[in-house]
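Annex B. Sample input.
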Amino acid sequence: MRQRILNLRFRTLVFGLLSSGLFGLQSCDKQDVYRDIDYNRISAIVNDNYNLSIFRAALDRTGMDEYLQEQEGPFTVLVPSDDAFARAGINGTTALKARSSAWIGSTVNYHVLNGNYELSKFPYLINQEVNSRGGKVFVSRWIKGQDTVLAINGARVLLEDIPASNGRIQIINRVLEPYFHETLADAVTADTTTLFAEALRRSGLMETLRGEGPYTLFAPSNHAMRRYGYTSIQQVKEANQGTLRELCEFHIAVDRRFINDYILFIGDTHTGSQRMINTFTATVKLIANANEPGGFSGIRLAAPGNVTDVHVTRQDILAGNGVLHIVDDVLRLTR
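Annex B, continued. Sample output.
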């Protein structure tokens, strides 16, 4: 919808009348300036939807709202809903303001793609690489039961291919975290899983995780490593290298796997498997979503040596050559 907006600009000219000592005000010269405003631009559509208010505030904070209004593009913008921001701990625009400008800027850029991507026409493949203004994103289009599912970095697309005059909008159910590390070796080193990171170094597998990949890494938390028996960095450094390599190899899988990928792949039994680089497999069990009948919210892992299932406590930490998940126990081959 286009609306002609009248912009009145008054110019007042003051002339000195020396002969009379009086000042006269010349009447205003009205100039009618018409400017087209396109209410079908990406920015305008986001502004017009109350459940996208937090992303709208993020666009405003970075100046990207004006850019997406003025530029022809085309662009594809991945827009997290307000519920998606709430799941990320950002409950409203006030909470967003507490975030740093750097975080908001990198997050907004990561959600903006140059080009018009019609996701509903993507091939039926998992994790197809597309470049955003902030790095690589991975698009999946897959059939699950009777439904065609679209996902980006494991986040579900709630509404796809909303047309705008300068591109498209995709509404997603999670805020995508930009990745800051090109390799999983750097990502796990920067994380709080210091004991497992030292085990990877000691075993020689850090070099593997610096390779091209892609890989999926299930990294046990420090608490999980302590329960397993490695209570300090020094103890890990003094451990047998072969023993550590056996442990670590059972936590690395070839290929990039977001948690949602397992939900898409696994069939009616709700149980699947993941082969690790040591050729042994861990069992993958889907977790039912209590708020979505027939849906699933995540996965649990099981291995021959584990008495109880292993839970994913943090998921989908993206690196340039793979994905990192943090788990609450060590996957064990034997008891």
